[in-house]
Amino acid sequence: MRLFETRPHDDGLPGPERRIAVLVLVLGTLMAVIDTTMINIALPSIARDLRIAPSRAVWVLSLFQIVCAATLLVFASLSELLSRRWLYIAGLALFTLASLGAALSRTLEALLLFRALQGLGAAATLSIGPSLYRMIFPTRLLGAAMGMSALVVASGYASGPTLGGLVLSVADWPWLFAMNVPLGGIALLLAWRALPTEPRRRGGFDMLGALFSALMLASFFLAMDTLGHGGGGLELAAMLAVSGASVWLFLWRQRRASHPLLPLTLFEEPRFTLAVMVSGLAFIGQGLAFVALSFLYQQEMGLSPLQTAWLFTPWPLTIMFAAPLAGRLADRVNPAALSTLGLALLLAGLVSLVLLEADSGVIDSLWRTALCGLGFGLFQAPNNREMMSSVPKARSANASGMMSTVRTVGQSLGVALVGVFLAADLGSVQASLWLGCVALAGAVVISLRRVPLTPAPQREPRSQRPSPGSK
Fold first, then answer.
1. Which residues neighbour 67 within 8 Å (Cβ) at sequence distance 6 or greater?
2. Residue of 18 and 277 predicted with greater confidence
3. Which ranges does the record mark as transmembrane (predicted)?
4. Structural domains counted in the chain
5. What is the pLDDT at residue 471?
6. Residue at 463 is within a domain
7. String of b and e for 242-267 (b: at least 16 CB within 10 Å)?
8. Residue 7 lies in a domain
9. DSSP string over 318-368
10. pLDDT tens column, 437-446
11. Which of 158, 176, 195 is where one domain is finished?
């Protein structure tokens, strides 16, 4: 397989070691991503068994997401001191042990404690996952590696609800957490063997920056959660004020820290800055679409939850098909141009979904959803490649943390905006979808600006390529 072949002068790991290291990253990512989507299905069962209100059971999901999002940047920076190998192993161990604790929990308080610890473990692994792909794979295969990363995330999102439903059909909800224990144990053993070592950075850690970062992101996500549930008033204003003040303090600290949590010099590279902006807008659009389409299908088209799930299926499935292909192409052609094409297809697909009639047939919906997934799959891997390749390797952990944070913040903001539209009665569900189209149109415009900035990756001279019969 091309991803695991070794050529002279390759950086990264040799082919056999690369296979094991990739398996570690796949297992770690799948456990974290599937855990998020799988638990959605179990919330009614958790509320019933723990004898709590459904509104309180939602915190089993929300707390995990808030803790994970609030600490992504912190762990990305911390990896420079501990090394990415040891941080990933520690994150896997914490996530696995916390999963065991969650499976054994019999009160909401205990379950929430272990869900918070799970969120910390997931943040440690997800924050540096993309940078580990860059460390493991040779530069010539960076796009293909980013395509594999996108494939794994899409697979997790696609299979989580189905896997959760299958487990709950034969067992109780604690088994959803218990499944992570043997998988985590296997991933830990393989990680100990295969993840590469690297020199650690000498110097201090930006504790004040970490505090401001966590406060900034946690208060933002609490505000988004309040908005998403139709809340407002003094509580919302206070959380937004705390988040805004924390942003200012965080930026102030980053300009003065000797070892900043997020070096602002990263944003002096136009390719990186534009890729971050495009990614944020794209995930806002996707977050808006995912929630708004659920209401469109069920409330305005009269479909059942099962039919709605069926109509969503082409989105992640086409991402799983398109992302690896786009990643390989991004190693050969201009990745900014390829991701711009993907954004344009995603925008066209979402516009076509907004124009769906209430009496439209299933096939009419399926091809539009598939077009969205195809566009997002063509966009994500090349854009991630552009983000990671535009910064020095020494800063790849920071870029990786920023990538994960932008994805999480953008998706959550999109979800919250649908809640605002519905709570404030600002029009039909189509109004939310049109807002998603506006976000994607902005992403296309910004992405067009970076196409001339990004050269196509240089092909190796023919003399350095292996002969057709070589391995």
1. 115, 116, 119, 120, 123, 218
2. 277
3. 20-46, 58-79, 86-104, 110-129, 141-158, 173-192, 204-224, 236-252, 272-297, 309-329, 336-356, 429-448
4. 3
5. 41
6. no
7. bbeebbebbeebbeebeebbbbeebe
8. no
9. HHHHHHHHHHHHHTTS-HHHHHHHHHHHHHHHHHHHHT--TT--HHHHHHH
10. 999 999 999 9
11. 195
Residues 291 and 416: their CA atoms lie apart, in Å, by: 9
Looking at the fold, whether 253 and 267 belong to one and the same domain comes out as no
Taking CA atoms, 111 is separated from 91, 100, 178, 184, in Å, by 19, 10, 13, 19
CA angle, corner 344, sides to 342 and 348, nearest 5?
A: 115
Q: Are residues 279 and 253 in the same domain?
A: no
210: pLDDT strictly greater than 60: yes
Question: What would the pLDDT profile of 327-347 be if each residue is shown by its tens digit?
Answer: 888 888 888 899 999 999 999
Positive or negative, the CA dihedral 444, 449, 453, 459 is positive
Q: What pTM was computed for the model?
A: 0.78
Position with higher pLDDT, 159 vs 388: 388
Q: Are 177 and 28 within one domain?
A: yes
User: What does the alpha-carbon distance between residue 104 and residue 111 come to, in Å, rounded to a whole number?
Assistant: 8
Structure tokens at 220: 């933002």
Report d(CA 149, CA 155) in Å as an integer. Answer: 10
List helix spans (H) across 393-428.
396-424
Whether residue 291 lies inside any domain: the answer is: yes
The predicted-structure confidence for 373-392, as pLDDT tens digits, reads as follows 899 989 988 898 888 888 88
What is the DSSP secondary-structure string of 257-293? -SS-SS-GGGGGSHHHHHHHHHHHHHHHHHHHHHHHH
Is the pLDDT score of 161 beyond 60? yes
The answer to whether residue 201 sits within a structural domain is no
Q: In this structure, are 161 and 274 located in the same domain?
A: no
What pLDDT band is residue 237 in, cutting at 50, 70 and 90? confident
> Which of 403, 134, 460 minimizes the C-alpha distance to 275?
403
Q: Are residues 210 and 185 in the same domain?
A: no
| Same-domain pairing of 127 and 248 | no
Boundaries of domain holding 243? 206-257
b/e sequence 387-399, b meaning 16+ C-beta within 10 Å: bbbbbeeebbbbb
Q: Which of 6-10, 94-98, 212-216 has the lowest mean pLDDT?
A: 6-10
For the cut 70, the answer to whether the pLDDT of residue 464 exceeds it is no
